[in-house]
Amino acid sequence: MRIVLQRVSQASVTIRGNTTASIGKGLLLLLGIESTDTSDDIEWLSGKVIRLRIFPNHQGVMNRSVVEAGGDLLVVSQFTLHASTKKGNRPSYIRAANPETAIPLYNRFIRTLESAIGKPVQTGEFGAMMDVSLINDGPVTIIIDSRIRE
Asked: What domains lie within the chain, and their CATH numbers?
């Protein structure tokens, strides 16, 4: 699993002209699921997201998690995060999980986050064409990959 995590002051998802999800202060998570991902990847990655100390404390130092900061989460599926550009100019998405594999993992990832944060997680619509809007706070943008685990 691969995430592009962005600390935001607000973010939203619009599908077919309708805003279907929005958050204020929190994290926008663009989530790519690989065909070899398992529940172990979900546990590791969700724990990393919840505990990552990237929100400012009262002194302005990034030392608080999204939970400590009272932030929200917005998860958007994005298979293109597993694009391979090694050969030619047209990306290959062969490593991205097919919907039959990805949807249950996507849903479990969301439920795991909801359990950890203690409130609902906003989401996009799996497989839909979405317009994602955000105001990146900082900017703070971090890429996390459960295969690399750094």
From this structure: 2-145 (3.50.80.10)
